[in-house]
Every structure is written in C-alpha cells, then in structure tokens.
Design a protein that fits this description.
The protein is an alpha/beta fold. The chain has helices at about 15-25, 55-60, 80-90, 115-135, 150-155, 180-195, 215-225, 235-245, 255-265, 280-285, 290-300; strands at about 5-10, 30-35, 50, 70, 95, 140-145, 160, 165-170, 175-180, 200-205, 210, 230-235. The chain contains eleven helices and twelve strands. The longest helix is centred in the middle third of the chain and has 20 residues, at about 115-135. GO terms for molecular function: oxidoreductase activity. This is NAD(P)-binding protein. It holds the Pfam family NmrA. It comes from Aureobasidium pullulans (Black yeast).
C-alpha cells in the first residue's frame, strides 16, 4: 500500500471533525475539506476547501487525487455514507475511515438506539463489502467510546457541572468507563493513516483514559481546593426516564440513555476495551491520559 499523503475530510467543522482536521494538518498531511455547496461555514484559509453537491458524480470529482477520506459527518449526513464510499472507490481512494467514533459494532447499548445504529451499520457493512470486492480500496472504523473532555464540558447530566462546581453521582460512582479526548480522537485518525497496513479493513478500539465518577470527583475537588455540591441518584431512574421519554417521543431521551450507557451498574457498557493493552491505543499513538490531566484541561 502506498503512503497516504492527501486526505479529504467530510464533516470537518463538526465537534470531532475540527480536532481531526487540526491533527491531520499538524502531522503533515495535505488536507482538503469537502463540504456541501450550500454550506456557509468559513474554514481555515490555509486548508483547501471544495464545496460540492453530495451526488456520486460531484463527489467522485471532488475526491480525485485523494489517498484517504475521513467521514465524520453529523447524524443528518450518516445516511449518505454509502454515496461517500461509492465516490471514494470511484476516485481511486485507498482508505476510507467510516463514520463510527462511537461504540462500534460490538456496542451493548439500549434497544432504543437500535434504529440509529442500524443506519450507521449499513454504511459500515457497505464499505466492508466494497473492500472485499476491490483490493485497492480499504476501510477503517475507529471505536473511540465516550469523548470525555467534550462530553463532560457540554453535558452536566454526565455528572459534572464544571462552571458551578456541582456533581451528580450515579449509584456509588464506581462504574468504570473508557473515554477518548478530542486530541486522542484526532491522533487516532493520524495513527490509522500512518499505519495503513496494520489498520486496514477492521475496527480499532481507542481509549485515552479509563476512570469512574468517584475518581473524577476526587480530582475535581483536589484541583479546585473545595468540596463540590454533590447530588446522589441511581442510574436505573435515569434509564427509566429515558425509556419513558423515548416512548413519548420526547427528545431528551437520547442524552439520558447515552449517560446511562456509562453508568449502568455492573454492565460494563461504557468500556471500549477491558484495558489499554487490549485496545489499539498504543498502535495509533494515542497517549494515556490521567484524571488529573483531563480535569485540569476542563477547568482551564
């Protein structure tokens, strides 16, 4: 397989797309941003941007001379993943990084997420079939689990309101989960493209930290030098509320069950891999990060 130099990113302005694009550029890849013709997003001036229709013909032209494509579109773009794959193959792209960046094919999530997962899985399976039929086309899926620094800052329901110094602890706060920071997600993409042979045609398990709520709370209190206001609840109640809201078609169910995925006692749903050694983090160059590092970063 030839070295990968030219990389197109679809979804570069998103929550994960931004750090991925930055990491690729910092690592010396020639990055091109692929975006919709109607998009008004202003991208960095030093990165080539192609605005195009999301049709097979237009995308094939846009992906010409690209060695790899990173697909990191939001939920609205996931159903188009098969078109992205077709265009990449037609353009002679060597590697297609599929839109996972979540819990991967082995996710043990709640059944309420099955329909969402099925749409994503359809694109993954399609890429795998293309690779099976065409030895010059390969794919990789990156299972990064919880995007811990982004998620804790954005969603206090995950347990920590950083601005108010308040915490919600579910059950005993000891259910362990893995996370990957945004920097780790960016490095996972870089590492994949730097090791094309080892990463071809498979899902890779990524983590930069393994922790639990109790450890994080202790760290927040240690670094801030104060006791945080703590509300204690049980994960089963959050699960029940999420399921009820799903049945009533109330949008908040997604966040409630996503948080419950981490803290459902004894289920291990939030573990991408049992340990760092059993993940692909070292292969990809993803640094191991401590609770102290992540918390200090969140506190700014």
């Amino acid at each position: 397989m030839s070295p990968i130099k030219n990389v197109a990113v679809i979804g570069a302005s998103g929550n994960f797309g931004t750090p991925i694009t930055q990491a690729l550029q910092a690592s010396g890849f020639k990055v091109t941003i692929i975006t919709r013709e109607t998009s008004t997003t202003i991208h960095p001036a030093d990165i080539s941007t192609i605005r195009t229709e999301y049709t097979l013909e237009a995308l094939t032209k846009a992906l010409n001379n690209q060695d790899a494509v990173v697909c990191v579109v939001g939920p609205g773009g996931v159903p188009l993943q098969k078109t992205f794959v077709d265009a990449a193959e037609a353009a002679g792209v060597q590697r297609f990084i599929i839109d996972d960046f979540g819990w991967g094919p082995d996710a043990r999530g709640f059944p309420e997420f099955d329909a969402i997962h099925a749409i994503r899985r359809e694109g993954w399976d399609y890429a795998a079939k293309k690779a099976k039929d065409n030895k010059n086309f390969t794919w990789t899926g990156l299972t990064t689990g919880n995007p811990i620094d982004w998620a804790m800052k954005k969603f206090p329901l995950m347990g920590f309101d950083v601005s108010k110094h308040e915490a919600i602890i579910y059950d005993q706060g000891k259910e362990r989960f893995t996370g990957t920071t945004l920097a780790g997600i960016g490095q996972a993409v870089v590492g994949t493209l730097q090791h094309p042979e080892e990463t071809a045609n498979r899902f890779l398990k990524v983590q930069s930290i393994q922790t639990c709520q109790t450890e994080l709370l202790d760290t927040f209190e240690k670094i801030t030098g104060e006791k945080w206001k703590v509300t204690r609840t049980i994960s089963k109640e959050l699960i029940e509320k999420g399921k009820e809201e799903n049945k009533a078609a109330i949008g908040g169910w997604v966040l409630k069950l996503a948080v419950s995925h981490l803290y459902d006692v004894g289920q291990g749903r939030g573990m991408v891999a049992p340990s760092r050694e059993e993940s692909d983090a070292a292969l990809l160059g993803v640094k191991e990060e401590s609770a102290e590092y992540v918390v200090a970063k969140l506190l700014g």
